């Protein structure tokens, strides 16, 4: 990670602020493609992932936007409350788990704060002269970050805004926005889980090829359930067994036994913690692994997933 200073903090919309971060040591950042995100360590030491809002060809600024989530675990509230212009924060190098693929035409769908990577994608596609259409859904206009900017953008005629509380605003019709599937049309969707689920269902009903569908959640794993059972992790290389009690994540159980593992989002979103599974069946609760990876049961995310068998043998 490297240190950045907050160069600018702007209220973009109700409960949404943008931060422009500049490396403290003056370093020039390598180019990153649209869809990239950074890990950001907040003043309360929480580590969170935020999509970068700009298509970027290299330079110093990193722009993110953060929605305050009153039901969250304190990361967004800390960002809104404690981060100010001049604050020093630590960030990780940009990583991209949501890249654009070359296609003749793209459909970009954003729900709420899901606009952040989608805005960068629109800028990148426009810069490349590619065909696309962007649909942006929000509860109300005053909760839609970058709304005015999208209205002024060089690609404004490609943007459709859908606000729940505005009678004059066209209602979002996922089937119409997606249209008929084609091998050279790709779909990118980012937003709340319910929004993504709805869009994916409509895409499946229309016959879209899963290979043409790309999505990114910004909140992840299902909360622990009261009927979660205990299970055991067997560490193949160390030859030890680690019980995972009810109410404790597999990751926490490993850490409690002094076993270091990589952790970042702790919500099943980022994939930082993925461990190889040699035996047993995980109960996957993340949104990082693909359906095929989950069905293969050869890896799991210990930050949130559990086991459907009494033990999992992991390559650790
Ligand atoms: S820490 Fe991010 S998926 Fe587990």
TrEMBL record:
Cofactors that this protein relies on: FMN
* PROSITE patterns, per database record: 2FE2S_FER_1, 2FE2S_FER_2, FAD_FR
Work out whether the entry's keyword set contains Isomerase: no
Q: Which InterPro entries did the record assign?
A: 2Fe-2S_ferredoxin-like_sf, 2Fe-2S_ferredoxin-type, 2Fe2S_fd_BS, Beta-grasp_dom_sf, DmmA-like_N, FAD-bd_FR_type, FNR_nucleotide-bd, MRET
Give start and end of each FAD-binding FR-type domain.
Answer: 1-101
Q: Name one GO molecular function term.
A: 2 iron, 2 sulfur cluster binding
Q: Does the keyword Iron-sulfur apply?
A: yes
What is the name attached to this protein's record? Oxidoreductase
Per UniProt, the keywords (alphabetical) are: 2Fe-2S, Flavoprotein, FMN, Iron, Iron-sulfur, Metal-binding, Oxidoreductase
Q: Where is the 2Fe-2S ferredoxin-type domain?
A: 231-316
Identify the domain of life.
Bacteria
